[in-house]
UniProtKB/TrEMBL annotation:
Belongs to the zinc-containing alcohol dehydrogenase family. This is alcohol dehydrogenase (NADP(+)). It is an enzyme of class 1 (oxidoreductase). InterPro entries: ADH-like_C (IPR013149), ADH-like_N (IPR013154), ADH_Zn_CS (IPR002328), CAD-like (IPR047109), ER (IPR020843), GroES-like_sf (IPR011032), NAD(P)-bd_dom_sf (IPR036291). Its cofactor is Zn(2+). The keyword ATP-binding does not apply. Keywords: Metal-binding, NADP, Oxidoreductase, Phosphoprotein, Zinc. GO terms for molecular function: alcohol dehydrogenase (NADP+) activity; zinc ion binding. SUPFAM superfamilies: GroES-like (SSF50129), NAD(P)-binding Rossmann-fold domains (SSF51735). It comes from the Eukaryota.
Length: 361
């Protein structure tokens, strides 16, 4: 039972928590403000970011922390300054739970509706709100945070499916929108995992001319074609892939979170004016590559983080309309430690979702 000052959730206390050593314990949520919403969590997706933070992979974590930023549940409390949400609504929050929203009038990111790049943003866990209180995630019974970053879930999307859309889905969908993926576009997706399978399904639903799945082995080839891929490249099984497939794509989404990848070969797959978008965030530095792979075909490279609020709403509506459903495995919330151990082993096909069964009628 939630109170004003105590929630229960899975807490990581040190780097070893990434090995499945989180502890179910009480913690203090942020103070409830008139701009906040409280959600009784029914589902929370497991994301690779959870492990990076638990083991302090990207930066030292603010232990103890409760991870999880693919949160869906029932609204049980609404601040007086929140609009568009009501008690009993089914709603969710993704990887971002705060930004300045251009209140000072000079934040270019918020003014342009790409709040994920706000220099004063707050991620959903392992962060601090402007008042210094801790941001905690969704491996828990309840979540509390700003209503501005809480989204209504379309009736046609089940809660377990919606959860993984709120980070994994939008991370893959946002660059497809930005680079106008659609009819006539040849799109490649590197890495057939939680992000990559969203990229394949979304590119197919957008009507891209080709959707090419790129992986080290052909073990996921059959799955990729079921998701909508039109071609498959297995880089460890075809020593000639970088030559035979050169200049065949217009856009590449790279979901791989590894410094050990043949990035120069990947870049060479792009045709004239092609664009490479990096989505995965390795803990180590990425390998160097020759600048001539960019210069020779007027190629370009960028990175992309989740999506702004308008893109998330658009994604939810689009996925509902096109009946896009992630490939998920539901796991009881009580088994969160096993879930992250199995996730680290690469066992997920293709997203894990923790389920608070006691909160589901």
């Amino acid at each position: 039972m939630a109170t004003d000052n105590k929630f229960w959730g899975w807490l990581g206390h040190d780097r070893a928590s990434a090995n499945g050593n989180m502890v179910w314990a009480e913690y203090e949520p942020k103070p409830f403000e008139t701009t906040d919403v409280e959600i009784k969590i029914t589902h929370c997706g497991v994301c690779g970011s959870d492990l990076h933070h638990l083991r302090s992979g990207w930066r030292p974590a603010d232990y103890p922390l409760c991870v999880g930023h693919e949160i869906v549940g029932i609204v049980v409390r609404v601040g007086s300054d929140v609009s568009g949400l009501a008690l009993g609504d089914r709603a969710g929050v993704g990887a971002q739970s705060g930004a300045c929203l251009n209140q000072d009038g000079d934040c270019k990111a918020c003014a342009e509706g790409i709040e994920q790049y706000c220099p004063n943003h707050t991620i959903t866990y392992d962060a601090r709100f402007p008042d210094g209180s801790k941001a905690n995630g969704g491996y828990a019974d309840f979540w509390r945070g700003p209503g501005a970053f809480v989204f209504l879930i379309p009736d046609s999307i089940p809660s377990d499916a919606a959860a993984s859309m709120l980070c994994g889905g939008i991370t893959a969908f946002s660059p497809l929108l930005q680079h106008r993926a659609g009819p006539g576009k040849r799109v490649g997706v590197i890495g057939i995992g939680g992000l990559g399978h969203f990229g394949i399904m979304a590119a197919k639903a957008l009507g891209c001319e080709e959707v090419v799945a790129i992986s080290r082995s052909s073990s996921k080839k059959e799955d990729a074609f079921k998701m909508g891929a039109t071609r498959f490249i297995a880089t460890d099984e075809d020593s000639n892939w970088a030559t035979s497939e050169a200049c065949t794509l217009d856009l590449i989404l790279c979901t791989v979170s590894s410094a050990d990848m043949p990035i120069e070969g990947y870049m060479g797959l792009l045709d004239l004016n092609g664009h490479f978008v990096q989505l995965g965030a390795p803990e180590d530095k990425t390998p160097p590559f020759s600048m001539f792979v960019l210069l020779s075909r007027h190629r370009s490279m960028s990175g992309s983080l989740i999506g702004g609020r308008s893109q998330i709403r658009h994604m939810l509506d689009f996925f509902a309309e096109k009946n896009i459903r992630p490939w998920i495995v539901n796991i009881p919330m009580k088994d969160a430690n096993k879930a992250i151990r199995d996730f680290e082993k690469g066992a997920a096909r293709y997203r894990y979702v923790l389920v608070n069964e006691k909160h589901i009628k």
